[in-house]
C-alpha cells in the first residue's frame, strides 16, 4: 500500500482542518491538498502547499511590460503569448510544494533538476521501510538496439520471470542484511549511516520538493515526454494532472507549445521548406547526421 493506516489518518485530519485566508486560492488545488495520488507500486505524490494561480502570472507580466500588453485583451491570450515567446519570470510567481515517495533510482534522475528546494528522508537518522519497486511484467524490457538510453522489446516467459525473481529476491536479501546490521538487544550493530549503503536502488525514499511553475514546466517537458523513462514519466504525468487543476490556462499553453509542440533547427526549417516546395530530401541533402535525420522524420510523422 502507498500509505500506512497512520499516514492515511494524518491526511484525513489535515483535510478536516480549515483556515480562513485572504490569499488567492484555487478550488482544484484545494481538493488536491494532502491527498496521496498513487504512483508505481508503493509511491505517491501529494500537494502540501501552493502559491499563486493564473492571475498571478498575468499580474506579474503586466507590472513588467506595462503598456506593452494592452494589445493582449485577456489573461489566457497573455499567458499564451508569454509561453510562446519563452518569457519565464511571470511563471515563477507560482510555486507548489509536493510530498513525493519514489524509488531511489528515480530520485537520482529527478534531483538532476536542481532548480527546486528539496528535503529528503534521512537514512542516517531513520530506518527505511521494507518497500521496493518491482516492475510489472509489461515494463520489463530489453536494452534498445538503437538508443543507449532506451528500452527495446518486452521480456517474455521464463526470462521475464527470472528477472522478476532476481529483483524480488535480491531486494529482500539486502533488506534482511540491512536489518541484521542495525543490531539487536544482544549486539551493538552498525551505524544507520553505514548500514544503508547495502540497500538496493529500488528501495523507496521520500522527500518534500518545492518548485516554481517555470522550473516545474521545464521538469514536465522533459519527464512527461513519451521518450522519458517510464518510472519517472508516471510521476510527471501525475503532476501534470495536478497542475492542470491549479493553473488551467498556463497548463493549456504549456501543453500546446511545449508538450505538444516541436522545435526545429535551422537545418530542419530549411529542409522542411524544400520539402514543401516538392523536393525529395534525405540526410545528406539536409546536411544532417543520420541521427538528426531520423529524429526529423519522426517529428514530421
From TrEMBL:
GO terms for molecular function: flavin adenine dinucleotide binding; NADPH binding; thymidylate synthase (FAD) activity; thymidylate synthase activity. Its cofactor is FAD. Catalyzes the reductive methylation of 2'-deoxyuridine-5'-monophosphate (dUMP) to 2'-deoxythymidine-5'-monophosphate (dTMP) while utilizing 5,10-methylenetetrahydrofolate (mTHF) as the methyl donor, and NADPH and FADH(2) as the reductant. The keyword NADP applies. FAD binds at residues 89, 112-114, 120, 212-214, 218. Homotetramer. This is Flavin-dependent thymidylate synthase. InterPro entries: Thymidylate_synthase_ThyX, Thymidylate_synthase_ThyX_sf. DUMP binds at residues 109-112, 120-124, 196, 223. It catalyses: dUMP + (6R)-5,10-methylene-5,6,7,8-tetrahydrofolate + NADPH + H(+) = dTMP + (6S)-5,6,7,8-tetrahydrofolate + NADP(+). Transmembrane segments: none annotated. Its EC number is 2.1.1.148. GO terms for biological process: dTMP biosynthetic process; dTTP biosynthetic process; methylation. Binds 4 FAD per tetramer. Each FAD binding site is formed by three monomers. Coiled coil: none annotated. It is an enzyme of class 2 (transferase). Belongs to the thymidylate synthase ThyX family. Keywords: FAD, Flavoprotein, Methyltransferase, NADP, Nucleotide biosynthesis, Transferase. The active site is at 223 (involved in ionization of n3 of dump, leading to its activation). HAMAP family: ThyX. Pathway: Pyrimidine metabolism; dTTP biosynthesis. The keyword NADP applies.
